[in-house]
Amino acid sequence: MKKTTNFVIIFIEKVGEKMKCLENLSRITYPKELVYDISVLYTFKGRDAFYNKTLSKQLSMITKSTIEKDIVYSAILLNLNVSAARVKAIVRRDSEPKTHDETMIRNLKNVFEILQKSGKHFSLSSNEFLSLACKLYKDVKQIKFVADTKIIKSERSLLQEKVKVSRRDILDEAIKLYNNAITKDKIEATQAITNFFVDLMNMKLFNEENEFIALIIYYSLLQQNFDVFKYISFFEAYYKNKDDFDHEITHASYNWEQGYSKTDGINQLLISFLIRGYKEVEKQIEDANFDKKLTKQEAVESVILKLDEVFTRADIQRAAPTLSDATITRALDHLKEEGKIRPNGTGRSATWIRLTPKDMFQTSSKQLDIFSFVDMDE
């Protein structure tokens, strides 16, 4: 076992599969603009306990909404061919998947629930990351670490031997460097996370789907360090800034092999990304405080105005979990009498249509697509 370990070390050193970014964290400089943004970010981060306390009653529903959005935007990033109706059936009602793409929706739900639940306690190890990747592609693809066979010379003899070395060993070394950077070297968290992410994007550890698995690991590291992604969707924000991220990842990958990767641009983008997310959480706090001042009738109407034109009772309950079922029923009946909404179907499963001058006389309901599903909870 010791002999194999020795070969692993030689392999990593000789073939250049090192962590180019994590090994060069000491070279990072902090211009004044970055120092200012970091101070703003950590001012928000210092309010994590306040956010958790203030939104504690709504946290369960907020988290469900966040997971749903993460699933939908991940599906778009992965080009999954699944209708909005099927996404809702799988995510909200645990409907059995019928295709590989639908299986991915189920798997995404399982992975995001695990990461939301584990949060800061997610274990950083090559085994955990492989387990996460396997759960993500369960019944769709067989994900494993790439195994390279190289002819290398032992330091203890002149003999050359073929040794099979897994990228798992390289990932273990990367995790060790990352943990040392965070704890011993006291490197600022976004810097360590960004450099780890750029290394993952370039090392190609797995046999397939390296980019999305790297993105999932990136998300898990951010989850460990910042509470903001309990309240807002990481993958929604990433998708809306994808062009900028793609540009910065490409830029950071120049000269990566030589150990001169420039990660300052992508790190600055991440910090701005986190600050915008925290500002969104502040807005959620403001909305929650405002809703407390409304009558129950006004509160339901306020929620409906934020939903898509076609909505359900369940959508109202997700957006305002403190409202009772009886309150929602009375409010819907009242708004129907006022001509502000009308039902589409009967029973608790019926959809409702918010009326506007343009569509008051239409009789057909709106056709939903995957983006409609995203907007329905906003």
Structure description:
The protein is mainly alpha-helical. The protein folds into two domains: about 1-285, Fic-like fold, CATH 1.10.3290.10; about 295-375, Winged helix-like DNA-binding domain superfamily/Winged helix DNA-binding domain (Arc Repressor Mutant, subunit A, Orthogonal Bundle), CATH 1.10.10.10. It is built from 18 helices and five strands. It has helices at about 1-15, 30-45, 50-55, 60-75, 85-95, 100-120, 125-135, 165-185, 190-205, 210-225, 230, 235-240, 240-255, 265-290, 295-305, 315-320, 325-335, 370-375, and strands at about 145-155, 160-165, 310, 340-345, 350-355. Strands 3-5-4 form a three-stranded antiparallel beta sheet. It has a two-stranded antiparallel sheet with strand order 1-2. The longest helix has 29 residues, at about 265-290. It starts with a helix and ends with a helix.
Per-chain topology:
Blueprint: H1 2-15, H2 32-45, H3 48-54, H4 59-77, H5 84-93, H6 100-118, H7 126-136, E1 147-153, E2 160-166, H8 167-183, H9 189-203, H10 210-225, H11 228-231, H12 234-240, H13 242-253, H14 264-292, H15 296-306, E3 310-312, H16 313-319, H17 325-337, E4 341-344, E5 351-354, H18 370-375
Antiparallel strand pairs: 1-2, 3-5, 4-5
Helix pairs in contact: 2-14, 4-6, 4-12, 5-6, 8-9, 9-10, 9-14, 13-14, 15-17
